[in-house]
Amino acid sequence: MLVTGGGGMLGTAFAEAAGISPRFVPHALSHAELDVRDEAAVMKCADRAAGGWIVHCAAMVDVKGCAADPATARAVIVDGTRNVAALAKASGARLLFPQSFLIYGGGDGLIDETTPPDPLSLYGALKLDAEAVVLETLDDPLVIRMAGFFGGGPIDKNFVGRIIPVMHRAMTRGDAVFPVGDRVWQPTWTKDLAENALHLMHLDAAGAYQMASHGEAAFHEVAAEIVAALGWAERLRVEPVASALVAREETGPERRPDRAVLSCERLRCEGRDLQRDWRATLHAYLTHPHFDQYRPGV
Q1: What is the full DSSP assignment across 4-30?
Q2: Which residue from 205, 19, 211 is spatially nearest to 96, judged by alpha carbons?
Q3: Which of 3, 143, 163, 170 could staple 175 via S-S, CB 3.0–4.6 A?
Q4: SS3 at position 214
Q5: Beta-strand pair 142-146/207-211
Q6: Cβ atoms of residues 137 and 272 within 8 Å
Q7: Which residues pair with 240 in a beta bridge?
Q8: pTM for the full model?
């Protein structure tokens, strides 16, 4: 099993989960080891992919970075995916394409597999273009549209990984209240995503699925659970504020939906939903030794 973007949050989770599976032998390649924009370098990986699976995690995932450098973003996300899809076709490999929930525009109701994509950000639009490349190139890809996630401890670059040191610094300097926005999402552990996706791969599943933790949460609710899990409750209180107040700079190609909740209907109907409650997984994740530096008295 070839994993592109093997040094990132999701790629690392796939490599770790596949490493304990009797069916898959993971070959996880970081960006330094494989730049998916390099067509020749991608095609040289045929021996690691032939007859098996490619899990294409390599992407430029920084929404602001994509907006600031659209040419590079397109080269990595769309052209890179085109190269990887060509490798899958040439080597006879199946392709798993992890898709972002940011291809959707959000809304008050649940987003199901039939909801038309409506990306607000350039990143979401490019990921949707990349998915189209996959569907045009291959007969039986597995596309998994994933909720926003956390994972990886020191390499966690998403909300959980970024907010913890910021909150800790605020608490250390004596702040008793920390404002966090009310945007709604489904915080999902990369470990659960990888294990559930591998389950689908074991079953030779194809087509599009949605995958997310059970439940939904505003960002301030996630922050409050972090406070509880790390033992900060007596020193710091999370204060909910309107997301517009903490994301004023997100306009145009940087916009994100205020609420984006996936229904994961196909996964549940087929009895293939291995996801868990977001609170339980967040607390389990925060037992990672990386977070000991933020616990009082540790």
Answers
A1: ETTTSHHHHHHHHHHTT-SS---EEE-
A2: 205
A3: 170
A4: strand
A5: parallel
A6: no
A7: 180
A8: 0.94
Structure tokens given for 174: 């004596």
Q: What does pLDDT average to in each consecutive run of 10 residues of the chain (298 residues)?
A: 96 93 88 97 95 96 93 97 98 97 91 94 97 98 98 96 97 96 96 98 97 97 98 96 67 82 97 98 97 88
Give the whole-angstrom CA distance, residue 12 versus residue 217.
Answer: 25
* Residue that is written with structure tokens 């609420």 in the block: 259
Tokens linked to 290: 């990386």
On whether the CB atoms of residues 241 and 169 are closer than 8 A, the answer is: no
The alpha carbons of the chain give a radius of gyration, in whole angstroms, of 19
Q: Closest by alpha carbon to 35, among 27, 25, 45?
A: 45
Instruction: Please give the Cα distance from 192 to 275 (Å, whole number).
Output: 6
Determine how many CB atoms are found less than 10 A away from the CB of residue 140: 11
Residue bearing tokens 């966090």? 180
DSSP state letters, 186-223? --EEHHHHHHHHHHHHHTT--EEEEE--BS-EEHHHHH
